[in-house]
Amino acid sequence: MLLASANLGAALGAPVREPVSELTPNQARAYAEVLNMRPAAARALLGTGSSSDAGTLLVEDCLGITELLISQDAARYEAAVDAQDARLAALEDQTGPLAEYAAAEIRLHQAAAQVVFGHEVQGAWSLRRSYGAMQRVTERYPNYLPARKTLGMLQFFIGSLPEGYRWFLKLLGLPGSVDTGLRNLRRAATQPNDFQPEARLVLALLEETYYKKPEAALQLVQTLHRQQPENQLLTFLLISQFKKQHRTDEALAAYRARPSGPAYLPLPYLHHLAADLLLYQGQYPAARRANQLFLQDYAGQHYRKDAWFKLYLAAWLGGDAGAAARYRARIGKEGRTILEEDTYAQRFFEDKQPLNATLTRARLQIDGGYYRPALATLGQFRTTATTPLRDQLEDTYRRARALHLLGELDSARVLYARTIARAGTAPYYYAPQSALQLGYLAQAGGQANAAKTYFRKALSYPQHEYKNSTDTKAKLALAELE
Description:
The chain is built from 26 helices and no strands. By secondary structure, the protein is mainly alpha-helical. The longest helix is centred in the N-terminal third of the chain and has 21 residues.
């Protein structure tokens, strides 16, 4: 229809307007300020153009959803969704790749807002509409790369979901494919387009999380951060990557050098990250202050249980029993158990068996990258006839992790295998994580059949604290081998 209209206009001698496929320079700069998390600067740039332009509507919505999801402020939810509806209405009669992509992307933002704020059924319906619309954009405009970025991301996540979640998406008619999703993402990440930097980051972070490619992700984030040191998003990603790769000192240095000031959108979660890093170093009073700042500035429900749990750890390990008891009680009163971190905190709250201080210190040291000090801490742990199975398993598993990360792989393999053998069907994450790590080690060593066996073993455990993430990683590793 669009092509026929253009041909008719040309035949009649009328000027033909090509469908808009790119952001204007001001819109592109405004979008860069959205990624910088500088809302006033973004709005000032957007104010110079037409408010009904597809590019302006898209970037406005990117800014709106960024502010909403970072603040997690439920009081802003209804106004945000109403604004999205108004933008979608303004795009209804607009055609062309950018306009149709903008409508599908705004619908996806709406799905994210609805799910985060507890409107899951509405969110699922919005997700279905966005997915279908994004598919149509790629069919009508096969070379329009921004649509492939978003469609690829959706295809990957739906295809990688654990079986316990996929039935609902299948019911909605949302097919997923990890391979197709990665192909679409790579096209958007490797060819110039308005959203190429975003596609590059998404692809790198997926490969780091699920395909054990940490060096490439960190190198990309470091390079982009050197180019844009004022960018708060890149600073957050840099801190997060250093933390995930157990480089605590560098993560804290990046946190302390982060850009700040009234021009930036407040990002309370950075304080929660810093609290973890300080816990790893045994700086318990500083860790408490950081998490208290997070809870003071953060309006959302996610990570609250985890924050109170980390406050408990800092007080308990720091010898403040009274504060530890108060923090522990708050775990059961606040927040939701959607995220695995919060679920773990809630399980701790409900569990009558206390944590072991020696094992807990060792765990924090390993998470922080202090592997030899962790082994020294574990050397202080002694089992007796009354030592709970959970603590016995944790001791063996923590030793395996420290040795693995130190590169002492043969010793790590023995201890991972011992953890699995001792665990039986106990509902703790130590055995499934041991199986996952043995799978990665076998895969890296070219032992495909052994790797498959271990990944299937990791999937076989019916219930543990980190089942969703463990199952997703094992499933994707199996798919890579088959």
